[in-house]
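Annotated sample (chain length 314).
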Amino acid sequence: MNKELKTFQEFRNEISIIELAVANGYHIVRNAGLKYPVLKNNTTGDKIIIVNAQSTSNQGYFNPRDDKDKGTLINFVHYRLGTLFPMMSGQTDAKSINAILYDYLRLPISKRNRLLEKTTSIIKHYQERKFILPGWITPLNDTSYLQSRRINDKTIFDEIFNGRIFNASVGGFCNIGFPYYDKNDHIIGCELRNTDFKKMLSGSDRSNSVWHSNLPENLESVILTESPIDALSYHQLKGKKDSMYVSFGGSVSDKQLDLLNEVFSSIKENPNFKYYSAVDNDAMGRIYTEKFGNSLHKLVVEDFPRNKDYNEEL
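Output written by the structure step:
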């Protein structure tokens, strides 16, 4: 009695895109891709980037040179029928894909194990990569850029910001560095600022992190701002005791809001706890505020500046 044919999802559960790609001439490009594995086939010149590498069943890929060439293991095979993979004569694409994946599963165990070892090595390489502040990020000493933004030393060296602002000397310029933290308060990114200069350090994971001030002993409010400069400006103008400042570094991602929910959801002992939306006084700022209200599990109070942002208020 014949076994039932596997579904495409069952193939995805059993075969990694990385595994199949390596079996067909792809290799990891170790000096490329800060977050996701990059694989290249030197024979065809094809390059793919893997997402969700650690989860075979949910793995995906995309081709940075072709917007249409993306998707799952099934799409990976489909877009390469007739080039990397053979197209079965007189068969539909679906049947050709099935035949290719069944042929792969029939490989000798020893060969499959070697391919699995390579796949595991690639995934481990990316899981172990951590963001490390370079040596030229130093404790805050030169505040000239912040002074140029009308932020005074009393604000800059307030205990609430202690250890949350650095100097970053690059190419003869002394920049300000704002470290970005994940839910465990580990630094996984850094924003550099100077006159007409703004940059996230290479390897930063901004979408999963925020810049924030120190946590007070009795937290009553969290002030949400678009940039650390705005947070410092707000504190100088109307800072409240027992507050914490959070900056998203520009656009607000859903993952950043999830981070806030996870960190602050346990604050139940203070019934007066609330968020203040101190983002820019423009259309996008109102969109962010609405997003805060829909996503954060605490009261959100609008506290827009009179001008465009709180630094302009200075």
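Annotation: The mean pLDDT is 90.
Annotation: The longest helix spans residues 109-127.
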